[in-house]
Design goal:
The protein is α+β, with helices and mostly antiparallel strands and 317 residues long. It has three domains: 3-68, Phosphorylase Kinase, domain 1 (2-Layer Sandwich), CATH 3.30.200.20; 73-248, Transferase(Phosphotransferase), domain 1; 253-317, no CATH class. Helix content is 43%, strand content 14%. The chain contains 13 helices and eleven strands. It has helices at residues 23-26, 29-44, 75-79, 86-105, 137-140, 143-156, 164-167, 174-190, 200-209, 219-228, 240-249, 256-267, 278-288; strands at 3-9, 14-20, 53-59, 62-68, 73-74, 108-109, 118-120, 126-128, 135-136, 305-306, 309-310. The strands form four sheets. Strands 1-2-4-3 form a four-stranded antiparallel sheet. It has a three-stranded antiparallel sheet with strand order 5-7-8. It has a two-stranded antiparallel sheet with strand order 6-9. Strand 1 and strand 2 (14-20) form a beta hairpin. It binds adenosine-5'-diphosphate (ADP) and magnesium ion (MG). Residues 1-2, 4, 17, 19, 51, 67-70, 74, 116-117, 129-130, 132, 310, 312, 314-315 line the site of adenosine-5'-diphosphate.
Length: 317
């Protein structure tokens, strides 16, 4: 939903990420409410695996989230090169689970867990991003609001990771994130999405009525993935901590430092050393000059959509 830019806070002398609402949504009260909710949720979460928010600013009627700049690649970019090993998958999955656990404990469900919302830093740390359609647990049980936001979610995100209850527009709780976590695990291990469809209807049908090929998974984690992907939420893990513990029990204890080193090299991204692209530089200078919007009255970058989700200026460096 947002456009994200790399920028520089000249007062505090640090690199930051700025997330803006696209102009088409800047005056949409529902989009603004989601944006502010994202800011509040991030502010209430203080966790090493969740990107930190530094503030929310307003300028010329536009609103901006000022975020910790998370370097590295999204999990989506990593998976575009193929599946991960079991060790790499476990390392990432455990950190994602820890982040989700913290959110759930704070009463927040993410509702949009997918590879483009997970970033891997060059030193191998995992950061969960994008609480843009997250929701407080109590209100998520309100059927009318759940349906509304699910409708919005279908418009702004890929539904491939949505649980059967979310795709139906039904009640959604933390177990819906557990489903998405199962989809993530499946994709990391096989390089394929757990549920596919060329149209929305086909995809929704696959999510509700078909099972992925679980035999493609290593035996040690198969049960965990199957348990996350139970169609009926009452059959799923009741909380993400249980899934994490089960994954941990199956985790090999030997060679952690070796695994860590392998992940660091696998995720080191030479693109990061490059200078920011011209649109980003323009934004930086605007920020420095206290003028965020260009003299040309349009935001710096039109965000293209690719087949697997939005890319942003940060992605396009
Ligand atoms: N704090 C951040 N640091 C670095 N890159 C980020 C940050 N937040 C988002 N991004 C990048 O921007 C992309 C889109 O941001 P996201 O918050 O997921 O917005 P959207 O609602 O558009 O999906 C992410 O996939 C990631 O590549
Ligand atoms: Mg996103």
């Amino acid at each position: 939903m947002g456009n994200v830019y790399r920028a520089s806070d000249t007062r505090l002398g640090r690199e930051i990420a700025i997330k803006t609402l696209p102009p088409a949504l800047a005056r949409d009260p529902a989009a603004l409410a989601r944006f502010e909710r994202e800011a509040r949720f991030l502010a209430s979460l203080n966790h090493p695996n969740i990107a930190t928010i530094y503030g929310i600013e307003e300028h010329d009627g536009g609103r901006f989230l000022i975020l910790e700049l998370v370097p590295g690649e999204t999990l989506e970019a990593v998976l575009a090169r193929g599946p991960l090993s079991l060790d790499q998958t476990l390392k990432i999955a455990l950190e994602v689970a820890t982040a989700l656990e913290a959110a759930h404990e704070a009463g927040i469900i993410h509702r949009d867990l997918k590879p483009s919302n997970v970033k891997i830093t060059p030193d191998g740390r995992v950061k969960l991003l994008d609480f843009g359609i997250a929701k407080n647990l109590p209100s998520a049980t309100d059927a009318s609001s759940a349906a509304t936001v699910t409708r919005v979610g279908m418009l702004i995100g890929t539904p491939a990771y949505m649980s059967p209850e979310q795709i139906r527009g039904g009640e959604v709780d933390r177990r819906s994130d557990i489903w998405s976590f199962g989809c993530l695990l499946y994709e990391m291990l096989t390089g394929r999405r757990a549920f596919k469809g060329t149209t929305y209807i086909e995809l929704a049908d696959a999510i509700r009525n078909t099972e992925p090929d679980f035999t493609a998974l290593p035996e040690r984690v198969r049960r965990v993935v199957m348990h996350c992907l139970k169609k009926d939420p009452t059959d799923r893990f009741n909380n993400i901590g249980d899934a994490r513990r089960e994954l941990q029990e199956g985790e090999p204890s030997a060679g952690r430092s070796g695994i860590f080193a392998a992940i660091i090299s696998a995720f080191r991204n030479p693109r990061q050393e490059r200078q920011p692209s011209p649109p980003v530089l323009r934004l930086v200078s605007r920020w420095r000059g206290d003028r965020l919007f260009p003299r040309r009255r349009r935001p710096p970058e039109v965000v293209p959509e690719n087949s697997r989700g939005q890319r942003t200026a940060v992605d396009q460096r």
